[in-house]
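A sample follows:
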Amino acid sequence: MDIDTQQAALDDHHDDPGDLPVMRARFEHNGSPRYLLYTIKRFGFDRDHGFHLDVELVSDELEDGLETVEAKLHEGDADLIDIDYISTARERVGGAPIVAFHPYGRTVGGLVVHEDSAIEGLTDLRDCRVGVVRRLDKNWILTRAACREYHDFDPEDEAISVEAGSKVELTRMLRDGEVDAALQFWQIVPEIVETGPYREALPMADLVQRLSGADETLPISTFLTSEDYLAESPDAVEGFKRAYADAVERLQTDDDLWAELGERMMYEDDPAVVRGIRDGWREMVVADWDGEKVAAMERLFDHLLEVAGKDALGVDHIPEDMFRLEVTPTQ
């Protein structure tokens, strides 16, 4: 299913915003937030909470070193995106007036290999060609940190990292044998392994929990907006948080909705793939956050910085006021 078909499914639920404040959401066509966004539009949760969510799907390629959604926010063409909080820190330190106002989830990926591969885990990566979307991707950062922390080597030095530039290209490289393993994003892993002949050697979620020392699911990706939009449209931002809660509750309990998502919003509507994505989404999503959870996120960042270093992360601290746990509506 191509990007235009998915956009058409969303457009079926795009009505006239009228006098409601508009929030322009720009998300990757193969990113997992599109399931949440479709649910919000499908059931009118945005209108229920006093705003109009305008959803547009975009490519997952890089523009001047940024993911397309990041570029959209930087250029003033979006009010809502999601990226990992390490990238958010990197961009904010670089001067971008962006803030993280709500968690999304533990959106990490998996190490995928051919079913006949000898690679079983991190220790087998030495001298291998490892495909990554980009070297500053959270999956590669986690891999480097875990290898240095637990196995006394850095795969950036002892393996060959191959930068694909997009998720689509990374899958192609794996299937064409140009890499020995791929650190692919979680929602694409079921599409690869269920259609074979591939397997997931290691889920990155295991590394998040081990490195963080946290028992609860930590959000790695968050929803972002600009400082200006937050100041000008706090009611819309608060409305999104409430619509998000409604959509998460629906997605956690409604299996029929996932079947509909498979038909309208997925590249593979094989029932096994849909179930894999559904179960993975339910496991990784984070409904809300508080100061304790943000503190755990900051501890994970500090640990990654300690074991992987600034060069791996691209930033050496999380700026103050990057996380906005509270939104003050005008009403």
